[in-house]
Backbone:
């Protein structure tokens, strides 16, 4: 007889062990099932990832459903709603919200990963796998989601699905609160106020005590007077709320001196409550204003289709960024120096106080450099920093054009190995100019005029693309002289050569770069001429 309980216990352990192995095997299967993981990631991006490009379309769709639902509820108060719109409101919208709730419940955490982590931890410690603990951890994360305020609002928004109980139709109004999920500004507002939980709780406690005490006092003072409009505790409560909020409708007012004395105290307390509430909100926004501006800047940068990325904002970068900005180009500046970033913002540039050499910087910005950035200019204060930045960018994309300034000519090879296309060594340029223009003051003044910020003369590069090449066979077809411009030369991509002052019969091919000098107004007119040439061809 003594062996039977032991046998039963051994059988139970084996059964539990087999069941646990099945659960672990299924968890590993889900983790390696590509279609499952891609589907889950898709819905996660659609529901939770603010950087996902298609999420805003989903948010707009959900907001349209919310306002449609509320509109139908308002209309049916005085008008008869036909069966289609009633079904649309009670069933279709509710089913969509139900599906959204279930999908959020699914993607909010990875239960299989939690089970695998617990299993591998137990294996590492050479102990029996505790399935119950793993399941408890997985369910705890789900329970935290279910009991969160947004999830409760989502659940209440589904209640009209049970439309047989007409009272539940009023829960349609809770769908309005779902807008917080789909508007980023609302989310910012909620996050800002959440950092003042203690102050808001203190304010709520104080206001509640004032309302409770004033309700009792006014009821005691006024209830025995037959002419008083305050005849019940609810009347007293309503009067206290109206008075402490300083609204003062005047429909319920005390008529005894004692009651009026209580009203004076409640009014003073109401002013204090409103002042306290205002100071809390203003302080919260003041403390987080820089973060709000930073988030707005990130959002604006993500929306840019084309921009020049400047890493480092020194003296050279300021001049380059100023020229690009005046030409209507979008410029994004990254620098770790807060003072430099502030200066860049004053110059109306997109500036972020982030490390250009950190991979996390570009992940947080959420831009695709290969698609959005026209070029990256490495203008930091040392060659080492420029090399690190180049290696980081090359890790993300191999196609983007990198240009760097060189501080020490001994580091040229390092920059080349890091993937930089063009390297500019300022001292070499100064030496060349000094040698070339020494004793030629007029020529030197001409070069200085071209680089001056307030000059009306400029030098531009025009890339000959396929559309231009179709209608342009040679230099004479460009009609540069007609626009009172000077063609300095052509960079021939196929021949890897630069032709100064080319003849009119020199052929022009796709990819060639024209270097043109002239008045800015004439250059703009020439650009328009090129664009017209594109459309006509």
Residues:
């Amino acid at each position: 007889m003594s062996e039977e309980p032991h046998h039963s216990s051994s059988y139970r352990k084996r059964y539990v062990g087999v069941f646990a192995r099945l659960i672990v095997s299924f968890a590993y299967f889900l983790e390696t099932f590509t279609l499952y993981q891609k589907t889950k990631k898709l819905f996660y991006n659609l529901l939770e990832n603010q950087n996902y490009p298609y999420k805003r379309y989903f948010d707009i769709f959900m907001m349209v459903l919310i306002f449609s639902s509320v509109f139908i509820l308002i209309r049916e108060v005085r008008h008869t709603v036909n069966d289609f719109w009633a079904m649309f409101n009670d069933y279709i919208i509710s089913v969509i919200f139900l599906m959204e709730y279930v999908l959020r419940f699914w993607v909010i955490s990875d239960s299989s990963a939690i089970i695998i982590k617990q299993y591998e931890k137990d294996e590492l410690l050479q102990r029996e796998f505790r399935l119950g603990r793993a399941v408890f951890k997985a369910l705890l994360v789900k329970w935290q989601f279910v009991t969160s305020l947004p999830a409760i609002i989502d659940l209440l928004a589904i209640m009209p699905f049970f439309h047989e109980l007409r009272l539940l139709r009023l829960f349609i109004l809770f769908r309005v609160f779902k807008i917080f999920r789909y508007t980023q500004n609302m989310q910012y507002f909620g996050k800002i106020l959440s950092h003042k939980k203690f102050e808001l709780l203190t304010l709520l406690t104080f206001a509640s005590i004032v309302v409770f005490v004033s309700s009792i006092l006014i009821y005691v003072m006024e209830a025995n007077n037959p002419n008083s409009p305050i005849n019940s505790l609810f009347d007293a409560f309503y009067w206290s709320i109206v008075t402490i909020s300083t609204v003062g409708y005047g429909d319920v007012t005390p008529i005894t001196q004692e009651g009026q004395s209580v009203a004076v105290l409640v009014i003073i307390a109401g002013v204090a409550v409103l002042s306290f509430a205002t100071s809390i909100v203003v302080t919260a926004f003041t403390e987080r204003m820089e973060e709000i501006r930073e988030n707005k800047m990130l959002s604006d940068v993500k929306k840019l289709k084309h921009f020049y990325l400047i890493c480092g904002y020194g003296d050279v970068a300021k001049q380059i960024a100023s020229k690009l900005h005046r030409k209507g180009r979008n410029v994004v500046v990254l620098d770790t120096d807060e003072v430099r970033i502030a200066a860049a913002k004053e110059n109306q540039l997109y500036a972020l106080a982030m490390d250009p050499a950190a991979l996390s910087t570009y992940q947080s910005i959420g831009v695709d450099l290969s698609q959005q950035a026209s070029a990256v200019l490495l203008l930091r204060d040392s060659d080492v920093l420029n090399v690190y930045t180049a290696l980081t960018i090359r890790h993300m994309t191999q196609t983007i054009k990198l240009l760097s300034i060189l501080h020490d000519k001994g580091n040229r090879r390092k920059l080349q190995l890091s993937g930089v296309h063009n390297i500019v060594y300022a001292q070499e340029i100064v030496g060349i100019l000094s040698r070339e223009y020494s004793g030629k003051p007029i020529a030197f003044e001409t070069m200085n005029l071209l680089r001056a910020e307030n000059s009306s003369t400029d030098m531009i590069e025009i890339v000959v693309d396929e559309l231009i090449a179709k209608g342009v066979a040679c230099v004479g077809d460009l009609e540069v002289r007609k626009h009172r411009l000077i063609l300095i030369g052509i960079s021939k991509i196929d021949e890897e050569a630069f032709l100064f002052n080319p003849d009119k019969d020199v052929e022009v091919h796709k990819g060639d770069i024209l270097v043109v000098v002239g008045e800015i107004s004439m250059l703009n007119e020439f650009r328009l001429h090129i664009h017209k040439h594109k459309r006509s061809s």
